[in-house]
């Protein structure tokens, strides 16, 4: 994966530093001043934060791996995270205090009360093949590393909550079979649609709101203090997965998708119906019982997932209804291999 193209002064300066051998550097305070755009939609902030996090995943070609724990990069990331965390608090209302025993029920009620626009319904009924390919390009930013942000939580849990998360993750990673890993199934979907299935291939094309959803997972996953939020985010993800994936699969079948391209969606219709129950009761419910002071974090993490998905859907469907593309540039067909 290449370093992304800078989208403003922060990413331009940061990526310039990362292109050199590891060294200490400092950003002037004015460079990290309040952005003009809301942080969730600020291209410069989100691509810079995305790059900081990607150093902990697959890294970048021609970027020294020692940058991962460089103190100057961590200092920049801390300031960007503080900006992002405050912005999330501004757009995601903190749920009322909850008892640990009520956490599973409140998770279900939180998801049931979400009345945001349905991207799955649009794709199911209205989208043409080009719109579906755009959707898959957006989703590739997360799905090609599917489950990885949540795996950070495993060593930070204990007891039943840990076992429940490990059970979910084992399925996400294919039960030990590389070809069944959900990230590999998604690569097959991309190939079936003539898209480039290289990790991070569309990082330069997706807008800030797409990056923000993945950055939230990474921020929650990389900080122990956010572990309750990460579990709530995962639970909401699993609870809102089965029916949309059924519709995505039906849309792709309507558009002529083949069996290999459909496997990803068919797998999630089955798997996530099971994961939902594990995530709500065995993972989040038991975590809240063990950490009653963090029960509110679980609900807040779920609210973050739902809000960011709504903002993403509003952007994508809004652009499509206006007759425009939802990416920063049009998606080209992948070169033959």
Automatic annotation (TrEMBL):
User: Is Oxidoreductase given among the entry's keywords?
Assistant: yes
Provide this UniProt record's keywords sorted from A to Z.
Oxidoreductase
SMART domains referenced in this protein's UniProt entry, alphabetically: Haem_oxygenase_2
Tell me a Gene Ontology molecular-function term this record carries.
oxidoreductase activity
E.C. numbers: 1.-.-.-
InterPro entries, alphabetically?
Answer: Haem_Oase-like_multi-hlx
Protein's UniProt name = Iron-containing redox enzyme family protein
Q: Give the species this sequence originates from.
A: Sphaerisporangium aureirubrum
From the broadest rank down, the organism's phylogenetic lineage runs: Bacteria, Bacillati, Actinomycetota, Actinomycetes, Streptosporangiales
């Amino acid at each position: 994966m290449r370093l992304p193209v800078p989208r403003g002064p922060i990413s331009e300066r940061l990526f310039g530093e990362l292109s050199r051998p590891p060294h200490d550097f400092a950003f002037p305070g004015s460079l990290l001043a309040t952005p003009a755009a809301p942080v969730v939609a600020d291209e410069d902030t989100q691509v810079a934060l995305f790059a900081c996090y990607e150093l902990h995943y697959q890294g970048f070609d021609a970027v020294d791996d020692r940058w991962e724990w460089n103190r100057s990069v961590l200092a920049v990331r801390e300031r960007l995270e503080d900006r992002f965390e405050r912005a999330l608090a501004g757009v995601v209302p903190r749920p009322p205090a909850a008892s640990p025993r009520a956490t599973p029920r409140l998770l279900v009620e939180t998801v049931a009360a979400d009345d945001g626009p349905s991207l799955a319904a649009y794709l199911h009924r209205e989208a043409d093949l080009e719109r579906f390919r755009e959707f898959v390009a957006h989703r590739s930013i997360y799905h090609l590393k599917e489950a990885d942000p949540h795996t950070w939580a495993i060593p930070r849990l204990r007891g039943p909550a840990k076992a429940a998360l490990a059970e979910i993750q084992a399925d996400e990673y294919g039960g030990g079979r590389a070809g069944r890993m959900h990230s590999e199934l998604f690569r097959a979907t991309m190939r079936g649609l003539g898209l480039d299935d290289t990790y991070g291939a569309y990082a330069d094309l997706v807008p800030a709101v797409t990056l923000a959803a993945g950055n939230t997972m990474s921020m929650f996953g990389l900080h122990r203090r956010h572990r309750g939020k990460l579990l709530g985010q995962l639970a909401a993800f699993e609870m809102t997965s089965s029916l949309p994936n059924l519709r995505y699969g039906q849309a792709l079948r309507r558009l002529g998708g083949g069996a290999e391209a459909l496997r990803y969606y068919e797998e999630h219709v089955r798997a996530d119906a099971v994961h939902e129950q594990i995530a709500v009761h065995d993972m989040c419910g038991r975590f809240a019982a063990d950490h009653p002071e963090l029960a509110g974090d679980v609900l807040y993490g779920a609210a973050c997932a739902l809000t960011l998905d709504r903002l993403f859907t509003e952007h994508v469907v809004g652009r499509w209804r206006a007759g425009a593309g939802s990416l920063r540039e049009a998606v080209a067909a992948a070169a033959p291999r």
